[in-house]
Amino acid sequence: MKITRIRLENFMPFYGTVEVEPYTQEEKPLVLVKGENDTGKTSFHTAIKYCLHGVDERSQRDQFINRKAATDGDGVSKVEISFVDDSGDVYTIERGVEFSQVTNEDDRSADQFFIRVSDADGNTVVGNDDRRDNYSRFINQFIPENVADFFFFDAEQLEKFEEANDKEVRDAIETVLGIKEIENAVRDLEKREKDYEREYAKVESTVAEVEELQSDLTDILDKKEELEGPNGDGGKIQETKGEISTKRQKLQDIQSELETIEEGDDKRKDLEKATEDLQTVNKDLDDKLTERNTLRRRAGPLMAAVCAGTIQQLYDVEGTTDEADVINDVLGRDHCICGEPLDGDSDHRDHLLDRYKELHSSERRKIAELLDRASEGLNLGVRKELDRYQRLQKDIRQARTRKSDLKDRKETLEQELETIERKHLSDYKDQEEKLEGEIEELESEVESYQKRVGELNNERDSLRKRISSQKEASEEEERYQKLIDLTGRCRDAMSDIRSELVDNRRQTVEEHASETFLKLTNRPNYYRGLKITENYELRVLTEESSRSIAEQRPSEGQKQIIAYAFIAGLSKYATRNAPVVVDTPIGRLDPTHKNNLLGYYHNFSDQVMILYQPNELEGSDIEHIAKQTSKHYEINHRDDDQESSQIDEVELSAKTITGDD
Amino acid sequence: MARTLKTARQDIYKRLVEDDDEDNTIFKYNYELFSLGLIYGYFQGEQKKVDSEERSQDFIKVSDITPEEHRQSIELVYQMVKVESEKTEESEIWKEVLDYADRGVELIDEGISTQGDFDLVGIVQGAGAEDWESRLIDSLGDPGELKGVRPK
Hints:
The complex is a heterodimer.
Chain A: E1 2-11, E2 14-20, E3 30-35, H1 41-53, H2 59-64, H3 67-72, E4 75-84, E5 90-99, E6 110-119, E7 124-126, H4 132-140, H5 148-151, E8 152-154, H6 159-162, H7 167-176, H8 179-228, H9 235-263, H10 266-297, H11 299-314, E9 315-317, H12 321-331, H13 347-359, H14 362-374, H15 382-520, E10 527-532, E11 538-542, E12 546-548, H16 549-552, H17 556-573, E13 580-583, H18 591-598, E14 608-612, H19 619-625, E15 629-638, E16 641-649, H20 654-660
Helix pairs in contact in A: 8-9, 8-15, 9-15, 10-15, 11-14, 12-13, 15-17, 19-20
Chain B: E1 4-7, H1 10-16, H2 30-44, E2 57-61, H3 68-85, H4 90-115, H5 120-125, H6 129-140, E3 149-151
Antiparallel strand pairs in B: 1-2
Helix pairs in contact in B: 2-3, 2-4, 3-4
């Protein structure tokens, strides 16, 4: 990781916008920033730390707001740092506050805090609304917060590294060395192992159910066999079906018998025939009776007809009425029409007179009238009608006999049929009903058996599925066992690795710190080096002893050198390549220490920013490190505003160097 | 005078002539029983002598009888009664006719009661031609003895 740009806006003494681009070239890792006291050198250092990791107390943000800007009007106070990571990706972190104008600069305060991380294309990587964890995850990839002090430090305040027997410091050191990650891996593996054990416990418990389930399955299969038989072709269902079949056959026989009785019975046919015949006879009888009665009603005329016939057979009248008229006419003449004379006492006249009296008698007239009456309308053919009557009477008698016979026959047949129905049909009907009822019950029984079989099938399938899944569970159990075993071994391995790494790294750091210390100290012959205990306690080794720093009681300069050596050791083996920013680099160091340190600065990191006071580094010192220096900046009060500072890049020239001497 | 069918034996008519409610009667109309009773009574030479007041039931006028054979039968007997009775008053002759008819009805009724049924053939054949001849000679006179009449 290398910082490529730092932009300050209304931050502490930096009014308006101040921007530097401290990118370093290869072989020139140093960036020098010169600043007199109170110009803003430490503020610049604070700005870097603030931008990357924020502040512990929010009130500090109020103090970061530039005083002049706060009284000018509403605005923003922020720091922007752009950097490029080891993969070449560029990110920009922008952190700051919005503020409102205040009359009194001491009243300045932050209204709204903001932070934003964007990539090279301006896309937001971490937004203001994201959780704080998101930013922590982001920045921990580059410079974890707990190790920041190893990279951004004030050389005058290195005491805390002198005795690292502090958990916080120890964690930071282990983070720098990558040990924390291994510890995290160990913890993850432990957690994973516990998870697997829990899963295993579940699987194991379910496996224990398999036997019970299989027992249940056996019960179900037994029940199924009881219902369906061993091969699905017997059992209660088949037995009941057989029973149904037998009853059905019986029912069929009965129904066939009933059909014979109901439909094929001769008696019923005879009855139908007799009924039909009876109807015919009745009709015929009615017709005959009607005809006969008509004849009966003519009894008077028939009898009168016989009488009339007898009259006509018995009586006849003399002459005719015309004859009497002619005789009467002749009697008035002298001669008869035959020529005989009629005058006097003629016999012929007497004869005609007698004839006339005879023809004119009342008896003849009445008989003649009777004969006329007898001959009118009474020629009825009596004999023929009587014969017809007798035939009708005969037919009627026969019809009545036939009717009587048919009625008897019908009654007999009806009685016989009634007997049959009563005795047989009803018996069959009863049997039919009984059988139908029994069949219905048996079918219901079969249906319930089949339903039960269906349920048992479902239960069986369910159990098989469960057993199958339990078997899978047992496979899972095996898998979990393997995983637990593997995780355990991994954890053990990682623990071993951690232990070894801790030891190795500690030794390596110790070796490098010792080596560095011996390079930096002004007494390389006295000191044998540094020792880092298992608790990361720094001990100073001399020829005679191994003492803690407290016991050794080295000078302040010596302490600073020890701290540098320790940081150098850590930095050398840090898993992350981070810039180092050193404020007040020389501090209380004597010339030997300073000289040694200047010769060593470029080994700290690929980017080392040194914020120094003019009296810390003289022209010769600068010259000493000029070859390893990429940029040189200077912080000054602004000419137009002594309250505000500005940062300008200055040429690393003899002038600037001599100016410091 | 209008010759009207009447009877003094309404009871017999009620039994033997069909009412609307009865099916098993022998005659359908009163004139049917009257014509039979009349010819039968005449044949038997028996009359039921009753006062005219006793024949209160009027049936129908002879002239109103539609079936010709029944009307002719009554006219025939009327003519024979006219010859037999030698009466000239129509009402008197008709009185004789009604007497024959009521008696004849009684005899028919008795015959039915005796035989249990109406014997048409017996009645008709019981008055055969010979029987009639005898009856006619008794009633009307021997054809050989009647003036202007001769046996056929």
